[in-house]
Amino acid sequence: MSFKRTATIVVVGGALAAWLANAATSNREIAPAPVARKAPIDVRGAELADEISRLHERLRPTATPRTPARNLFSFRSEAARPAPVAPAPKSGLFFPAPPAAVTPESGFKLSGFAEDPGPDGTVVRTAIISSPTQLYLVKEGEAVTARYRVTKISAGAVELADVNGGAPLRLVLK
After folding, report:
1. Pairing status of strand 135-138 against strand 148-153
2. Are the CB atoms for 90 and 152 separated by under 8 Å?
3. How far apart are CA 159 and CA 140, in angstroms?
4. pLDDT score, position 139
């Protein structure tokens, strides 16, 4: 009976294994993994980034301009003037001569006046004097530069005295 007993054990063991294997697996289908959709704002952002990169590519010039010296803001162009040639230094001199002194008189211009009431009821005038490099607002007695001082401000003119003893300078409003 040992054969009969062994066969029974094998058949019962096989049935038990089949039952256990069937219980461990399900007959349900496995659902596919969900597809992650992009939010509409992300889609529009990606489209915008593509458009920006396309426009950046269009901004880069592909060809150089034919006339780089043209001026879009002028109606006519003037021929370029050659640079002035410096005179050759005289022989025998180690140092070049100093440039000629520019007289400040030529650059001063009376631009206008301002009047303010003074503390005692009088009118205090301020002269507006312009030079090529600066604008001066001066009253009587104040210095315009280190060389000139305002001596008198009248209704249409300003008198500047040279502190070095030179001739006074008179500026007239034009």
Report:
1. unpaired
2. no
3. 9
4. 92
CA–CA separation, 79 vs 54, rounded Å? 40
> How far lies 79's CA from each of 26, 70, 112, 143, in Å?
93, 11, 38, 44
Residue, of 43 and 61, whose pLDDT is higher: 43
Tokens of 17: 């294994």
Residue 82 tokens, joined: 């050659």
List, for residues 124-167, the tens digit of each pLDDT value: 899 999 988 889 999 999 998 888 999 999 888 999 998 888 88
Read off the tokens for 147. 């060389």
Q: What angle do CA 161, 162, 168 make, to 5 degrees?
A: 50
User: Helix, strand or coil for residue 9?
Assistant: helix
CA 136 – CA 153 distance, rounded (Å): 14
3-state SS assignment for residue 139: coil
Q: For 105-172, which CATH class?
A: mainly beta
Domain regions of the chain by residue span:
105-172
- Tens of pLDDT, residue by residue over 51-104, are 999 888 888 777 666 665 666 677 766 666 777 776 665 555 555 544 433 344
**CA angle (83, 87, 91) in 5-degree steps:** 155
Beta strands in 55-134 (DSSP E): 109-117, 123-130
